[in-house]
Amino acid sequence: MKQRKIPLAAILIPISVFAFNLNAQSKYVDKAGYLKFEASEALFEPVEAINKSVTAVLNTDTGEFASLALIVGFRFENSLMEEHFNENYIESETYPKAIFKGMLIDFDLSSLSKDPIEIMVDGKLALHGKEKEVKTMVSMQKLNGTIVMKGGFTVTPSDFDIEIPSIVKNKIAKEVLVSLNFNLKP
Amino acid sequence: MSKKNKRYFLMGFAALVILTAFVIYDRVFNAAPREIAKETTEFSIPADNLQFHFADNQAKATAKYLNRVLETSGSVTELGTNTMVLENRVQVYFLDNPEQDISLGDTISIKGRCVGFDELLLLVKIDQATTIKQNK
Fold first, then answer.
1. Residue A29 and residue B121: Cβ atoms within 8 Å?
2. Domain of life of the organism in this record (chain B) (predicted)?
3. Between chains, do A73 and B116 touch, taking CB under 8 Å as contact?
4. Quick one: closest CA in B to A54, which residue?
5. Inter-chain CB proximity A93 and B123 less than 8 Å
6. From A37, A79, A131, B33, which residue has the greatest number of CB atoms within 10 Å?
7. For B36-135, which CATH superfamily applies?
8. Which domain holds residue A148?
9. Residue B68 in contact with residue B50, Cβ under 8 Å?
């Protein structure tokens, strides 16, 4: 019996180490991703905010993609607007984050080069206690081992049950344009 | 008071009212953004403890720390442009200042604003940070 146990461990340990390594290699992460949203109406003060502390994770084996933005990380130029956004509209104390989880359709790591290609992303965006399907094209390229992902999509406040009071309704666009820029590193 | 003086007085008074209204309007609608570095620190807590609070009970920790000014410290385990990770548990984003001389393994104390918990990477995030103390 004793003789048997030793080779078993000898096989299992390298396998588990190998599996761990494989797992680590197939994940590309950006810990300081860039996300911006714009809901400006012509003639009124721009309504836009930028978040530079967004997390994005891509599993290059499966094409699974996830991104998380902490709501209070969105910075507005006008601090009163930032306060209203957090307290009245998106209620960041109750709903502190926005999470996207989805797939890059037909993703193949080996097809990426320095020339950008368009890839379809399909998934669900959850924020303010609500969830909505988001499907959009993103541009992807690989530069010096970093996967660069850029793109955008539109959502509406009503998709997430966010009520805009009538007093400011004409100053905030019905459609919110979200743009993203991630530099994913292994 | 003569009629002329009365008129000047009224004009001056009106100008003062308009000026006051404008100052109040400006204070409210164009309020200066927060300057975290100048605000009082509300919590002082080691990086690993802070992350433990969030990992243990996210809702409770969020209610306590979100958007609050805190000081935290730990050893630098990861470095990026304008950002670093302490103890593999707390990610710090500096106010734009990429010229800092930080190396892996340094022990650093920072002051910043807690923006919440990233459950994808299990990291607490702090932005608008400034360095308070650094031991190479």
1. yes
2. Bacteria
3. yes
4. B118
5. no
6. A37
7. Nucleic acid-binding proteins (2.40.50.140)
8. 26-184
9. no
